[in-house]
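Q: I'm writing a short explainer about Lysophospholipase L1-like esterase for a general audience and would like to include a description of its predicted shape. Could you first generate the structure from this sequence?
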Amino acid sequence: MSYVKYLGKEFLNYGKGGDTTLGLYNRLKNFLNSQAVENIIIEIGTNDILLPFLYNYSPEWQKTVKKIIASGRIPSKNIEEFEKKTIKTY
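A: Of course. Here's the predicted structure. Afterward I'll give you a sentence or two in plain language.
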């Protein structure tokens, strides 16, 4: 269940289920370059950690993770890439 409904009508949810840090980084960069915002809440990174774990969990998960990656939701390759993508100042 999304917490966004508790924030009020002035908050918009631009979340994308199953997104990864790279996906958010690209969308956020474009979003912030196109308009000014007063407040922003960011939750990201779970899939960068979870997808590689699930890929190694079972052959069934390998198929699922491959489909997710093929759709453009690409997890970080390692901790250095994850940190580089998540520790940014705008």
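A: For your explainer, you could say: Residues 21-34 form the longest helix (14 residues).
Q: Perfect, that's easy to follow.
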